[in-house]
RNA sequence: GGCGCUAUCGUCUAACGGUUAGGACGGAGCCCUCUCAAGGCUCAAAUACGGGUUCGAUUCCCGUUAGCGCUACCA
């Protein structure tokens, strides 16, 4: 039975790298009919926050990623204690009563061979028990078997065969002096207990895995399969941090900026993984169908953002691709929160006009602002290419007549009528359309004219054309 | 410092010994066009460096350099 888990520690908001780890686990589970487990690794009570926990749930909810089982490490303390005791009882761990040995040691100076205290490591069971029973505080350390065994090895599903000399592994802590388990202890005990079959996590744990293998063996279970994921890093090569890189590393920032969850997932999957067939835009189902650990590569991926432009251009492009290809009703529903002044029916009307013109959902606000208000503009914009104010005026007069008279106020009625008007004035269609467009939209870049006029409605259009004619007159008087 | 991992266009990536080193984003240009988009076409842009192995290395091996990670009673 395939079982995977995502095990965040609630010490920060859900960040993009964690989100990707969840997604890869989720895809792997869904692809292979496995079980997805969400486990909150909250053993570090000092640093845990409720906010952070909320942020994790909020992010996962937005991404619409579900899980089949849920656990909290803090509720499983008994299991961790039992596991630590079992290791100690077998003589595979020892109590360290002077736990601050390395407190003031510069790690750059110290040699690994000094990284355990031989007095503590070799203390007799009797003395150790006696001092523990006497209430003396201690850290429980794993007694790395450097004599009986030369190296620790495991097979990583992404990085291949891994090995490390036991000489190079320090006697790491299992239990703190408070009695609380360390991450290594709790994580392995839980993974064993929950029968996790595949541990898929960030590459920052690759070298920790040797310790984990040791723990699993001490626990008498065969270690799970491991798959480590390359890290996501910032353009300056450093790892993503909120302090250094700001809100761009937080999942909810993408949500609030108008990303579609499916586009975000799509983008993040392309960081460190490839379907190998040049496909880029993929639906969630396509991702599930094709995902495999073999497609994961080994080098860190840079998320390409700058201070001016906080989102990777490819993420934005993918978002636009998803927007363009989604059903119009779905898009309307997604857009609604970004247009507080509009009702659902109005948004539904606007969708066809802007679907292929926005890249982020939030773009809809500026893309459609003139449907809700008349924007100020420079009257000079009314003047068409290779034309003058006179031409603009004639075009607008003609347009006003046509828009007032035409029976079908839609593309079918407007298109031939306005083109015919241009012909009468002996100007090009484009020269006819530009003054109208600017008059009604307040700018040159806008959705197709006839559809725009239709949605705006006859009355508004006539009003705005009148207004444009007034402005034109004013400018004329000023120049003459 | 020690140990581990990594190294293809600016960025994401493909090429599991033989390709004019492919695709995408972004950039430049052209076309289409009622503007803006979208779409189509074209161009610029990479195998970190040095040694091997091989008839032949992006690909395998070694070294150098660089980056990242671990080296906590943080995860």
Descriptors:
480 residues, Rossmann fold, Helicase, Ruva Protein, domain 3, 4 domains, three-stranded parallel sheet, three-stranded antiparallel sheet, 20 helices, 12 strands, 45% helix, 11% strand, RNA-binding
CATH fold field value of the largest domain: Rossmann fold
Instruction: Give me the Rg, rounded.
Output: 32 Å
Order of strands, main sheet, comes to 1-2-3
Distance between the termini: 86 Å
**Arithmetic mean of pLDDT:** 93
Shape: elongated
Q: Quickly give the structural class.
A: mainly alpha
Q: Which band does the percent of strand residues land in? A: 5-15%
Strand segment tally? 12
CATH class of the largest domain: Alpha Beta
Tell me what the CATH architecture of the largest domain is: 3-Layer(aba) Sandwich
Number of domains: 4
Approximate helicity band: 40-55%
Largest sheet: 3 strands, parallel
Compute the number of helices. Answer: 20
User: Which homologous superfamily in CATH is the superfamily of the largest domain?
Assistant: HUPs
Low-pLDDT regions: none
Write a compact overview of the structure shown.
The protein has 480 residues and is mainly α.
Task: Describe what this molecule looks like in 3D.
The chain is mainly alpha-helical and 480 residues long. α18 packs across α20 (458-479). β1, α1 and β2 (35-40) form a beta-alpha-beta unit. The longest helix has 22 residues, at 458-479. The protein folds into four domains: 3-72 and 187-233, Rossmann fold; 78-175, Glutamyl-tRNA Synthetase, Domain 3 (Glutamyl-tRNA Synthetase, domain 3); 327-369, Helicase, Ruva Protein, domain 3 (Orthogonal Bundle); 379-479, Orthogonal Bundle (Arc Repressor Mutant, subunit A). The chain has a three-stranded parallel beta sheet with strand order 1-2-3. A three-stranded antiparallel beta sheet has the order 4-5-8. Strands 6-7 form a two-stranded antiparallel sheet. The model has no long low-confidence stretch (mean pLDDT 93). 45% of the residues lie in helices and 11% in strands. The chain is built from 20 helices and twelve strands. The protein binds one RNA strand of 75 nucleotides through β7, α6, β12, α12 and α17.
């Amino acid at each position: 039975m395939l079982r995977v888990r995502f095990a965040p520690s609630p010490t920060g908001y859900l960040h993009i790298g964690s989100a990707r780890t969840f997604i890869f686990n989720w895809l792997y589970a869904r692809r292979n009919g496995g079980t997805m487990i969400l486990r909150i690794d909250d053993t570090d009570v000092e640093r845990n926050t409720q906010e952070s926990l909320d942020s994790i749930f909020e992010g996962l909810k937005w991404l619409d990623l579900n899980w089949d089982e849920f656990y909290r490490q803090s509720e499983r303390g008994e299991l961790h204690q039992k596991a630590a005791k079992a290791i100690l009882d077998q003589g595979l761990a020892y109590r360290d009563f002077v736990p601050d040995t390395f407190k003031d040691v510069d790690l750059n100076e110290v040699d690994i061979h000094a990284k355990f205290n031989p007095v503590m490591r070799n203390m007799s069971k009797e003395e150790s028990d006696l001092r523990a029973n006497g209430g003396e505080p201690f850290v429980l350390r794993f007694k790395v078997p450097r004599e009986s065994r030369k190296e620790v090895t495991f097979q990583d599903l992404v990085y291949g065969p891994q090995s490390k000399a036991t000489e190079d592994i320090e006697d790491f802590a299992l239990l703190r002096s408070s009695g609380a388990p360390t991450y290594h202890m709790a994580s392995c005990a839980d993974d064993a207990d929950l029968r996790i079959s595949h541990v898929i996590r960030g590459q920052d744990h690759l070298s920790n895995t040797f310790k984990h293998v040791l723990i699993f063996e001490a626990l008498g279970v065969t270690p799970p399969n491991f798959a480590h994921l390359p890290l996501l890093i910032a353009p300056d090569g450093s790892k993503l941090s909120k302090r250094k890189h700001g809100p761009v590393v937080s999942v909810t920032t993408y949500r609030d900026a108008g990303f579609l969850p499916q586009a975000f997932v799509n983008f993040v999957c392309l960081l460190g993984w490839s379907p190998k067939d040049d496909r880029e835009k993929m639906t969630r189902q396509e991702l599930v169908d094709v995902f495999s650990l073999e497609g994961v590569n080994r080098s860190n991926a840079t998320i390409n953002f700058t201070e001016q432009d906080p989102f990777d251009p490819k993420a934005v492009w993918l978002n636009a691709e998803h927007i363009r290809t989604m059903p119009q009703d779905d898009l309307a529903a997604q857009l609604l929160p970004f247009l507080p002044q509009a009702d659902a029916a109005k948004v539904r009307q606007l969708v066809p006009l802007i679907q292929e013109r926005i890249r982020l959902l939030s773009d809809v606000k500026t893309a459609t602002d003139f449907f809700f208000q008349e924007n100020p503009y420079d009257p000079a914009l009314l003047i068409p290419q290779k034309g003058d104010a006179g031409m603009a005026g004639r075009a607008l007069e003609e347009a006003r007549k046509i828009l007032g008279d035409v029976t079908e106020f839609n593309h079918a009625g407007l298109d031939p009528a306005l083109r015919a008007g241009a012909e009468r004035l002996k100007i090009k269609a484009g020269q006819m359309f530009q003054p109208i467009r600017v008059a009604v939209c307040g700018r040159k870049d806008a959705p197709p004219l006839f559809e725009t006029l239709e949605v705006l409605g006859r009355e508004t259009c006539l009003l705005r054309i009148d207004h444009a004619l007034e402005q034109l007159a004013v400018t004329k008087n000023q120049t003459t």
